[in-house]
Task: structure prediction
Amino acid sequence: MTEPTITYGHGKLYDFDTVSGWTEHEDGQTGSFSVSNNDMVDIYITGTGGNAEYYIDNNVNLGLMTLTHKYIRYRYRTSDTNIKAKIVVEFNDATTQEILADASSTTWVTGVLALTTLKTVDHIRLYADHAVGHVYYDYVLIYEDTFTFPNAESITVLPSTDLARTAYAGRVGRAPQTMGADDTKILINVDLDAGDWKRTGDTIAGEVFFDIAHNGSVDEAWQWLTTGHGHAFKARLETPQFIYSNNRHLLTLTLYEYRLGSADDETYKERFGI
Result:
């Protein structure tokens, strides 16, 4: 199988549960931006003409050096194929790098690109161009790298259905309650003695998970996880268990799908990156 992967070393995560700290720029297009579904930014273009350009960018300089924070990852979709999404990074020397060229997709698209080395990222521009309509950006993430598991003995993915048996106060009977599906749970068991579990500079095998657990702040609320079996989505690491027994070094990872809003606006293929 393809080995699982997980991101680490998040420098800046824009998860768009709020759009505070962003400014709009109009040039030939009129529009607005807001939070949609409590989990994404919705840029709504209401009129177009002239140079037909509209974008938002972050107010505060990020100051992230690409020598360490090497990659940018994003997820977007558009209301139709006429309106275009585009992402541009602006460095502190006023040069720019186009991360996503004009593109449209009515289903969610995830992308990743290496940032120009030996630069300092200050601003991210999120565009909506060429037509009236909506562009939705789920997240933009700048991070250090992706760790590839050298060995995984088993991976268990436990998706919840919308008819989950959810307990509540004063409940009578055992009929399922349609209260919305719970987040998917992922269990990964690994043998730390099989393969090289150290990154450059690590002291112990599996140290990347100590790194992730310790840095679970607002800028590392989740990691981008691929299971090696065709799933790819936001996941939150919960209580990694390092087991040292009888000269064996094992690790059990528990992760949960991370969502702030409802998954109703996604197909299951989009939700799980299938």
